[in-house]
Amino acid sequence: RVRPLTCTETRRGDQRVVHSLGDGTVHVSAARHNATFGFSAVFDAGASQETVFEGSGMRQLVELAIDGFSCTVFAFGQTGSGKTYTLMGPLTQTQNQLAAPGLLGLMQRSFACLLEQSRSCGSDLVLSASYLEIYNEQVRDLLSPGPPCALPLRWSKTHGFYVENQLSVDFESLETIANLLQQGSQRRRTSAHALNRHSSRSHALLTIHIRSRAHHLPMWLPQPSTYPSKQGTLCFVDLAGSERVKETGSSGELSVEANNINRSLLALGHCISLLAKPRGKRTHIPYRDSKLTRLLARSLGGSGITLMIACISPSSRCLSETLSTLHYASRARRVTTRP
Hints:
One of its GO terms (biological process) is spindle elongation. By secondary structure, the protein is of the alpha+beta class. The chain has helices at about 5-10, 50-55, 60-65, 85-90, 105-120, 175-185, 245-250, 255-275, 290-300, 320-335, and strands spanning about 20, 25-30, 35-40, 70-75, 125-135, 140, 150, 155, 160-165, 170, 190-195, 195-200, 205-210, 230-240, 305-310. The strands form 4 sheets. Strands 4, 5, 6, 7, 10, 13, 14 and 15 form an 8-stranded mixed β-sheet that branches. Strands 1-2-3 form a 3-stranded antiparallel β-sheet, covered by helices on one side. The protein has a two-stranded antiparallel sheet with strand order 8-9. Strand 6 (about 140) and strand 7 form a beta hairpin.
């Protein structure tokens, strides 16, 4: 997804170096750089939130999660490229004042789609949500009351990596889940720097657990017999943006945060590069290199279905970061999993 040029970039006279050619291709044209990349879909600066929701396959992902699959969507890109806006809509929302319906992000649209499907299934679906952030390599619960404290990350043969003692909250209405999202997002670490007034300083993972109750057969049929219940998940990952400290002017605590963010994104990139190799040539995938890759292990190379939205700026000043994001996304596109 290519965001529009900002007012600052236009005033500064930055050139547009990214152009959508339609048909799932994006072209980067600048001095010494002329490259075309192909993706499942490309959304240019004029694309509405609704267009991104329908065109990215997000609706199908919700339906697969209801069917019991493990589904993940994550937004990736440099700081200030529009990741949080794509997932959550404008940052000015409060519990009393939501954004205009047209500006709502993929998360709110997915919740509405999920609850709509849930109503058509009757009361058979049980929905719950958990919300975590990874800040300076510590996993913290964004929904539990009191100041966020670090939670241990464990591994088990049956579940893989999981967070111990995280809070999971049941919900049945759009209002409840929207409030949980709002409440958790306000507790997330954000800071202002030269490239972004609301830069996310942590990776955030909101997971919706979808459980369908087991149906007991009518009394007149041979007992005991139950249909198995299905358990699916829909996980939204808002990654903190990659950043060059020189560009953002970060120092002190902000610089420590930036180094931790970049280190975990590097570990994620390394896992994706190895997963993109043909199965026969794959070596050990180092998921244990960061908390982020541990929590995303099942989404990346396990039995899940994953949608990656690469967010880029069209500005000539962001050229190297944009090319880096496009190469990263091209590698991710070659990863195949077996859901």
